[in-house]
Design brief:
Strands 2-4-5-7-6 form a 5-stranded mixed β-sheet, with helices on one face. The longest helix is centred in the first third of the chain and has 30 residues. It has 6 helices and 7 strands. The chain is globular. By secondary structure, it is of the alpha+beta class.
Amino acid sequence: MTAIVGYSDLLRLKQCDEQTSRKALNYIYSEAKRLEKLSFKLMKLMSLSDEKIKFENFEVNEFLENIVKSKDLVFTNNKILLDIENMVIKGDKELLEVVIRNLVENSNKAEPKDNIILIKGEKVDNKKYRISVIDKGKGIPKEHINRVTEDFYMVNKSRNSKYSGSGIGLSLVKKILDLHNSKIYIESEENVGTTVYFELEEGEK
């Protein structure tokens, strides 16, 4: 959604050549179609707490690389880096992409001091795979960390209005991870940075 708004502003506020305009319009269209398809799936999941989702096995490095490649970086100064130990995992790829995108957007809003957002993937014990999104941004006050996954909860509604949101991002992440029998873990310190991670089951090769 951020990229759609960014490209729309580009077309609305600047004189663009035909190639740039076509690129922007194609991106807006493809992203809108993707979000339309995803919205129907998410509405169904939100209305049915015991909804069954279809897991598939896939390689995590290709999955994360594709997300980063599709992530539009024109409207952010932050660079997304990958540190991935490859492994086959299982889950719903569309929903897990929503998780990653939400976490990256939150890191972007935190305005990392080094302009870097790190996505790290590593094997852990008990045939689990951990995915972490790490930034050196503003951080979250301790008193808010346990509440940021609540529906419509925002740490500070007035802070940095150019990055304002609805407060449903992390609650949606929590819902998706619940469906994957996983949890969201948040480690954060103000003016130091934030690490958010979750773990998934190993898949079959």
